[in-house]
């Protein structure tokens, strides 16, 4: 016999709902992050200044730059320091 937990707990998995797009979340902090990044004053799109790719929020853009352009940024900084 497999025990899944209390039935009422399973039914209330997504207790928090966005008032603008009706997307549901199981945690309040996830709802707040969604509201800020998708519907907030500073919601995207944000363009990468290196490759011009667009992102929905600043956190996605930051991760993109760290993953794909970190070496480019470091090389540029080193060139500036050498020329200074």
UniProtKB/TrEMBL annotation:
UniProt keyword annotation of RNA-binding present: no
Keywords: Metal-binding, Zinc, Zinc-finger
Alphabetized InterPro entries for the sequence: Znf_C2H2_sf, Znf_C2H2_type
Gene3D superfamilies linked to this entry: Classic Zinc Finger
Domain C2H2-type: 16-39
PROSITE patterns: ZINC_FINGER_C2H2_1, ZINC_FINGER_C2H2_2
GO MF, one example: zinc ion binding
Name assigned to this protein: C2H2-type domain-containing protein
